[in-house]
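--- STAGE predict ---
source: upstream dedup step, 1 unique chain passed
mode: sequence only
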Amino acid sequence: MIIEIAICRAAASSWPRRSGNHLAILFGERADVRVRQDFQHGLGRTSELHAERLIVYPCRGIRRKNIGEALLLASALGAGEKLVLTAPPMTPSDQGLYARWKAVAERLRLPVIFEGQTLLGRSTVDFLVGASLCLTTSVTEGFGMAFLEPWLAGVSLAGRDLPQVTEDFRESGVEFSHLYARCDVPVSDARRQAVEQAIYEAVRHSCESYHVPIKAEMVAAASAAVFAGELADFGRLPEAAQERILEERGMAGVALSAEKPDVVEKNRATIAELYSAEAYAAKLEAAYHGLLEQPASGVDFLDTRALLLGMLDFGNFSALRHGALG
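--- STAGE serialize ---
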């Protein structure tokens, strides 16, 4: 069986063009040159979005995007700085939480603009290339495009690191020196007790969902992921705790800053080369050929129980992933 390079290239190139919300990442297009000036002109006509420094979180506001942490970072922004979230969630299960965060931002008068795409009538791509800085606070990602697209637009990225996603990108030469591993905030003894109870309930919820007996070491691993001494990682806390910390004007121990221009350009060039249609086609072809060259063998099966327990490893616990809505 022969795998044609044209077929691989077609498979690699068809997917990213199906949505207008993503930069053409496999093609390395310099969209920043094409639309930045026009976008800035549009901002000038929309006073609500006008800012000396526009920080853009290009996402739909679903739960795993960790909107509460984005609001915490926005609470520390200076005069002339604003955070824009580009789009609302589509599913009813996420829309209630999204409305809750909008109400919190309004009540606390945070410099946050929700649904920037609707407000300005522009795409996520336009906001990428018009940003002073891009932000991510997501606690889990699929393809990881959030860590690549800003650089193609000539814009630096800051926010929460997801090593399970960014490790491959780093090995390919992409630099992420302004991502943080934790967003620690102080926690009182009373709040810690409430959070520890919420952690237990979240672990129990996950275990019951998969008919796995809960064990003390599971809860201990989850607690160790959240707490570091008297501090807690904000993005791993349940929403109720996040909201209370925001209302008490808690401050994050991280700051949002941009990369140097030469690093931005280096990252852009690396991503454009290594994540192009041609690069993906070559990887697909190699993978297919590797499979075809393997000798035929008997059918074997993974240990499904071991696989399930591996998935339920709570060392990377976050209430936003494991728990019911807090």
